[in-house]
Amino acid sequence: MTSIDRDNLIYDWNQPDVKAAGAIQFDDETLRDGLQSPSVKDPSLDEKIELVHLMDALGIHTANVGLPGAGARAREHIQALAREMKKLKIRPNVACRTVVSDIEPVADMVQATGVPIEVCAFIGSSPIRQYAENWEMEHMLKLSRDAVEFAVKKGLPVMFVTEDTTRANPEAVKALYKTAIDAGAKRICVCDTCGHATPNGVRRLVKFVKGIVDEMKVDVGIDWHGHRDRGMGLMNAMAALEAGATRVHATALGIGERTGNVEMDLLLVNLRLFGLIENDLSKLGRYVELASKATGVGIPSNYPVFGKDAFETATGVHAAAVIKAFKKGDHWLANRVYSGVPADLVGLEQVIAVGPMSGKSNVMWFLEKHGVQPTDARVQKVLDLAKQTPRLLTEAEILAVAGN
Fold first, then answer.
1. CA distances from 264 to 87, 119, 256 (A)
2. Spatial contact of 46 and 56, defined as CB atoms under 8 Å apart
3. Residue 18: per-residue pLDDT
4. Contact by Cβ (8 Å): 269, 281
5. pLDDT value for 324
6. Would you call 273 helix, strand, or coil by DSSP?
7. 114 Cβ partners below 8 Å, 6+ apart?
8. 358 close to 393: Cβ distance less than 8 angstroms
9. What's residue 404's pLDDT?
10. Would you list the domain boundaries of the chain?
11. Distance (Å) of CA 38 to CA 13, 56, 247, 279
12. How far apart are CA 25 and CA 59, in angstroms?
């Protein structure tokens, strides 16, 4: 082929179900819900600041930077992060119970920093939660109304959050959201707190909530906050956007309470591949690496896109196709011929390794990349060792046997 029509090299059966009404917004929960994971450590303030800068570079709109009610260290970090965000486009929000004592410190922080901080006021909404807490609906509505009205009087933007929305009955959902909107909430958040929902359930629920907003004829945004206890976090986030959500919450690597939240990194990659966002994702790898280091949560080797194995192959047939693309001088082709995600989209590259499933082309490519003449004898020695070794060969092993 002398001239390539790249649009015809991949027939794409994927048609995005998501047809967003407007620009999709993202709320990064890494520094709040992410830190509720039993396996994480709380990052240093410097690490949090660097993460916020990376979120900003990735085009993330807001970040939940903590729970003021968690103590003095949390409030100190929130205030410092809010000050840092004054230099950036990304804006802070914080989680508060629907009680005035949780919201009052936020108003003080805004006075101290001069940065608007969105209050994410939450309350449980499902019958099982009401029963466990001995709550009556009238009491819940009063708490919600009083908290939102207090925040609004203090000049704070409010997102009203119903925990466990995906297991709440329609009457409770409607009553709580109407009360909060009447009290001045500008966003409402639908939560799959226990990771209970399926994509079909998400569509039904978000469409129901959108119907409430449409019926009230108000300009109120709808957020989706999902967990992945059943492994459906990413699919559910897509379903929520399809049904009318305008902002999605997620965390780096999907860290969060229990099995975690929607993976922000994978959400951004998929929406970019669908053509629904144009965010520059070249720093997404650094964001994932820093989140892993700062929280102490390792990246599994087979984690999509950012795991060590994501763009590495030692299989002979696969590697041969990638190598042929590289030899054409076509990195676009090399990044797609055996990969559903182009490595260069996220600032990474394809890696050719040598192991028991490899062929001569793997070895020749490796030696050439390391400045070693790939003679027949050297290639055969490396290949003989690879076939006898039940894993990938290390760089040192390959160079040692090739030099003998």
1. 23, 21, 12
2. no
3. 61
4. yes
5. 84
6. helix
7. 86
8. no
9. 63
10. 25-295, 312-403
11. 39, 27, 26, 31
12. 9
User: Closest Cα partner for 252 from 224, 311, 293?
Assistant: 293
Cα torsion at 167, 31, 233, 239 (round to 10°)?
80
Q: How far is CA 398 from CA 327, 357, 373, 374, in A?
A: 22, 15, 13, 12
Q: Which of 284, 280, 326, 321 is nearest to 305 (CA)?
A: 284
Domain range 25-295, its CATH number among 3.40.50.1370, 4.10.91.10, 3.20.20.70, 1.20.1050.10:
3.20.20.70
Distance (Å, rounded) from C-alpha 333 to C-alpha 263? 27
The C-alpha angle with vertex 204 and arms to 203 and 208, in degrees rounded to 5, equals 115
Closest of 394, 331, 404, 320 to residue 362, by C-alpha: 320
Whole-prediction pTM value?
A: 0.91
Supply the pLDDT for residue 210: 97
**Do 362 and 352 form a contact (C-beta atoms < 8 A)?**
yes
pLDDT along the chain (404 residues), means of 10: 66 70 88 95 96 98 92 92 96 95 93 94 94 93 97 96 96 97 98 96 97 97 97 96 95 96 97 92 95 96 94 81 81 83 87 87 86 90 91 91 80
DSSP run (H or E) holding 348 = none
For the chain, percent helix, then strand, then coil, each to nearest 5? 50, 15, 40
Q: Are 92 and 78 in contact (CB under 8 A)?
A: yes
- Say if residues 117 and 158 touch (Cβ distance below 8 Å): no
pLDDT at 328: 80
Sign of the CA dihedral 316, 318, 320, 326?
negative
Report the DSSP beta bridge partners of residue 247: 25, 223
Distances, alpha carbon 259 to alpha carbons 27, 226, 294, 355, in Å: 19, 11, 18, 33
13's CB contacts (< 8 A; 6+ apart) are: none
Burial readout 9-48 (b: 16 or more C-beta within 10 A, e: otherwise): eeeeeeeeebebeeebbbbbbbbbbbbbbeebebbeeebb
d(CA 400, CA 387): 16
| Structure tokens, 279 | 């965010």
Q: Which residue has the tokens 């704070």?
A: 156
SS3 91: strand
